[in-house]
Amino acid sequence: MRYLLGLDIGTSGTKTVLFDEEGKTIKTANYGYDLFQPQAGWAEQNPEDWWQACVRGIKEVIEKSNVQVSDIKGVGLSGQMHGLVLVDKKYNIIRNSIIWCDQRTEKECEYMTKVIGKKRLIKITGNPALTGFTLSKLLWVRNNEPDNYKKIYKVLLPKDYIRLKLTNVFATEVSDASGMQMLDINTRNWSDEVLNELNIDKTILPDVYESIVISGRITEKASELTGLDVNTPVVGGAGDQAAGAIGNGIVSEGIISTVIGTSGVIFAVTDTPRFDKEGRVHTLCHAVPNKWNIMGVTQGAGLSLNWFKKTFCAKEIEESENLGIDIYDILNKKASKSKPGSNGIIYLPYLMGERTPHIDPNVKGAFLGISLINNHDDFVRSILEGVSFSLKNCLDLIKDMNVSIDEIRVSGGGAESNIWKQILADVFQYPLTTVKASEGPALGVAILAGVGVGIYDSVESACSKIIKGNAKVSQNTDLKEVYSKVYKVYNSAYPKIKNI
């Protein structure tokens, strides 16, 4: 039996998963790390923390499985998208990584739009200038930390820093690179036009490959640290959303993915690049060769529930610890006690601004419609509903782009909640399918690695073999009118609160 290793460098931690060639999980390891917020709206992490989590994770899955290391045929890398990692000539980190949810770059986005133009940016990069994307972060460093900018030898994404540590190679791939806003997604290569207009030296960018290409091999030093064999191939991999889509079998048009992670994502595959003229959804290169994807993003999905838990649930946390019950099981039970519509409370999940559909880094979150009849259960449910409404905003835009919807698959931490899945199905008024591929992005990049090393003929054939549909959640048609009314109120709220 041959085996594949998938690394998923996420925001809260890194998941390392060893799979056999049939896609079965052999061993999993998780190691977390901190997120730093030096100022409101800023978000940073230390790339060295990611690396240590990877080293520990790889060692653990190798040591705790009965697999011969020589039978691990390939490594795939997935990671949080858009993060800015700056490396000097000695391959050392210059500063902490400014990660995807950071919102400090509004001025840089205005500058990009002024120099290149919104329509032109969307046509080349698939998106308007966005605070979350890598390019505006790079310009922020140039404007605010000129000494650090002068030290730059290469600009990398989070997973590509791990590639560097594993292989000593500077490389990226099309799915993650297209979230940097420096890639021409039509040609699937760096955009000379964007780089020249903004006076950015192309040599600071790594080589860009298709996601199934072997980009490097494990070095002796990385082998000593991790236990992997020297020269084990490392493929391009994918950004976490494209990787998760592959892990859920979202590789052809008509099958839509909904992910409720820290952020929330609606992901659809297309055979040609398609654009929203306002740039309210992202158009990016898919990790499947000759495919693209449309992606709507809710910044504060699982992030909202996690924030509420930490801020307003001391009693529930104590109960969880005393009884040995998962805190989220307690919160889900509370949400299920409240009525659809949360007894009038509407939650706007704009804790870190919002991407789809508003593209507004400054809008703030809110609970609206609170009265004396409301209790803690209503607040919890309103969060699940508010995030679901935001995801419906994304779905509505994708439908308007004439993307067919034959099936919607749901995954991510939030999808482990039965009540949240049911609310989402009721808000969407579509049935949802969960899939057996619980490891999501790690499985997706393991599949890419398998294609790269010749275990599978193609991404599509691997997915059809490995990924099977699981339980279905049917929508409650009796709630269509209820949620339609609440959704209308939800949509009316943004114009009224955006200037607060």
From TrEMBL:
Catalytic activity entry: D-xylulose + ATP = D-xylulose 5-phosphate + ADP + H(+)
Keyword tags: ATP-binding, Carbohydrate metabolism, Kinase, Nucleotide-binding, Transferase, Xylose metabolism
Keyword flag Transcription: no
EC number: 2.7.1.17
Entry GO MF terms: ATP binding; D-xylulokinase activity
Site (Important for activity): D8
PROSITE patterns named among the record's database cross-references: FGGY_KINASES_1, FGGY_KINASES_2
Residue intervals of the Carbohydrate kinase FGGY C-terminal domain: 258-451
Domain Carbohydrate kinase FGGY N-terminal: 3-247
Function according to Swiss-Prot or TrEMBL: Catalyzes the phosphorylation of D-xylulose to D-xylulose 5-phosphate.
NCBIfam families: XylB
Name of the protein in its database record: Xylulose kinase
The organism of origin for this protein: Clostridium vincentii
Upper classification of the organism: Bacteria, Bacillati, Bacillota, Clostridia, Eubacteriales
